[in-house]
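Structure ticket #2291
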Amino acid sequence: MRRVEAWPEAAQLELAELALELDAGFSGEVYRATPEELAGIERGLKDAREGRFATDEQVKAAFDKFRRA
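Resolution: structure written out below.
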């Protein structure tokens, strides 16, 4: 955690948000997604319904390509 003090402020804030989310999970509180998160979830579900995700084979090919570089 000491290294975090040297991080840029934006990165420190992001870590703080993640820590609060984790803490909420351990305290038994119900997590409430932000409007931005809900919009992202909706976009992802829409993309899934439309079949807009890469197949397993496409993902493997992409990883193989970058591993060779």
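Closing remark: The chain has one domain: 2-68.
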